[in-house]
Amino acid sequence: MYQEKSKSKTNIFVKDCITKALFNLLEKKDFENITISEIIKKSGVSRMGFYRNYKTKENVIETFIQDKFFETINEIKDERKLNFQTPNIMLTTLKNFQKFSDYIKLFLNRNLEGLLYNCYHKAFYYLYHNDKQSRIREYSIQMFIGELFNLEITWLKKGMKETPEQLTKIYYRILKLRYNEQIKLK
Asked: Using CA atoms, how far apart are residues 117 and 134, in angstroms rounded to an integer?
């Protein structure tokens, strides 16, 4: 589960150097061909500095994605105070996905879709999971995580031609159609 680590200026700087080094290497090499030694050399931090902050190179990406996800959550929490409606939550999520789309493209170009999904799943599950929820709620959360992930990845792969506002409307039209189909089946 995601846990925030120390936020000292030195720690933030070290993590930023490591993350930038890995992303720079990802632009040139496949992920599986990048070594921790290369990341350390490119980042200019010590091996101890790397392992103080990360366990693996996958953990660098996981932490980056989770940090961006929690930025989104904080924006959603701020918006809840103003206007708590699900379409506004979807809109904030899509706007932030758009803001970080260059990184997501990089991950997809390097065949890291599975890692990206796992990070996405952990973060959403952390946000929505409740130990005392019904099975229906549990399945509902799992469906939403998969739907949103696939919606955003498809949007990215198709060139993000729709605005976040347009995609939010499309998503809710799909939900409405799905709901109407369920009523017809009864």
From this structure: 24
Does the pLDDT value for residue 1 go beyond 50?
A: no
- Counting the structural domains of the chain, the total is 1
Domain annotation covers residue 86? yes
- Residue 89 included in any domain: yes
Answer yes or no: is 83 within a domain: yes
Q: Would you say 183 and 159 are in contact if contact means Cβ atoms under 8 Å apart?
A: no
Domain region containing 124: 58-185
Q: Enumerate residues 6+ apart whose C-beta is below 8 A from 53.
A: 5, 11, 14, 15, 18, 63
Cβ atoms within 10 Å, residue 63: 19
Residue 52 lies in a domain: no
CB 67 within 8 A of CB 144: no
Q: Which of 66, 56, 60 is nearest to 121 (CA)?
A: 66
| Distance (Å, whole) CA 160 – CA 146 | 19
> 93 with 72: CB under 8 angstroms?
yes
Q: What is the pLDDT of residues 100-137, one digit of tens each?
A: 999 999 999 999 999 999 988 887 777 777 767 788 88
pLDDT tens-digit profile of 47-83?
A: 999 999 999 999 999 999 888 888 887 887 776 655 5
Measured CA to CA in angstroms, residue 150 lies from 47, 136, 146 at distances of: 37, 21, 6
Rounded to two decimals, the pTM is: 0.80
Residues in the chain: 186
